C-alpha cells in the first residue's frame, strides 16, 4: 500500500510480511500527523482474513507516542534556547569574569560587555572590552 502526503511518498509493508516499517522516498521527516494518517490508512486497508496482530498495533502506537514526546522535548529545548538569548542581552554594560588560556597560561579576566550576538552553533557570544567570549564561559557578573 502507498500513501502520499505533503509531497513525500510513504510505503508500508503488508502485515503478512510481519513488517510495520515506514520508509521515506525523499529524505523527509515523518511527523506525527503523517504517522497517524499512515497508521489509519494501514488499518483501513488491511486484509480482513488476516488482520493486524494486536502486538503490531501496540508497537506502532508506542512508536507514535515516542515521536510525540520527542517533538515536545524539542519544543521545550527551543524555548530554553530563546530564553538564554534574552538573558544574555541583560549582560550589556555589566562586568563579566572569565578565564582565558589553559594550564599555566590560564588567567582570570574581567571585562565590560559592549554587545551580544548569536551564533547558531555556540549560542550567545558576548563582545567585551577583552574580546569575544561565549556566554557559557562567563564565571561571574557584576555591576560596573
Task: Explain what you see.
The structure is a single chain. The protein is of the alpha+beta class and about 140 residues long. The chain is built from two helices and eight strands, in the order βββααβββββ. The strands form two sheets. It has a five-stranded antiparallel β-sheet with strand order 7-6-5-4-8. Strands 1-2-3 form a three-stranded antiparallel β-sheet, with helices on one face. The protein is rod-shaped, with a radius of gyration of 26 Å. The termini are far apart. The relative contact order is 0.11. Residues about 1-30 have low confidence and may be disordered.
Task: Name its key features.
144 residues, alpha+beta, five-stranded antiparallel sheet, three-stranded antiparallel sheet, 34% helix, 31% strand, rod-shaped, disordered N terminus
TL;DR?
It contains 2 helices and 8 strands, in the order E-E-E-H-H-E-E-E-E-E.
> How many angstroms separate the termini?
68 Å
Sheet with the most strands: spatial strand order: 7-6-5-4-8
Compute the CA-based radius of gyration: 26 Å
Which runs of at least 5 residues are low in confidence (pLDDT < 50)? 1-28
pLDDT averaged residue by residue: 75
Total beta-strand segments: 8
Give the structural class: alpha+beta
Strand content: 25-35%
> Major sheet: size, sense and barrel closure?
5 strands, antiparallel
Amino acid at each position: 500500500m502507498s500513501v502520499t502526503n505533503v509531497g513525500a511518498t510513504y510505503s508500508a509493508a503488508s502485515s503478512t510480511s510481519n513488517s510495520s516499517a515506514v520508509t521515506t522516498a525523499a529524505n523527509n521527516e515523518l511527523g506525527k500527523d503523517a504517522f497517524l494518517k499512515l497508521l489509519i490508512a494501514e488499518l483501513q486497508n488491511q486484509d480482513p482474513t488476516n488482520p493486524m496482530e494486536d502486538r503490531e498495533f501496540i508497537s506502532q502506537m508506542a512508536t507514535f507516542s515516542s515521536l510525540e514526546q520527542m517533538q515536545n522535548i524539542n519544543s521545550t529545548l527551543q524555548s530554553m534556547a530563546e530564553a538564554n538569548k534574552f538573558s544574555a542581552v541583560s549582560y550589556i554594560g555589566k562586568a563579566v569574569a572569565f578565564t582565558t588560556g589553559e594550564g599555566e597560561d590560564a588567567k582570570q579576566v574581567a571585562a565590560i560587555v559592549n554587545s551580544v550576538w548569536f551564533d547558531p552553533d555556540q549560542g550567545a557570544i558576548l563582545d567585551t572590552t577583552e574580546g569575544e567570549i561565549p556566554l557559557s564561559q562567563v564565571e561571574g557578573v557584576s555591576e560596573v
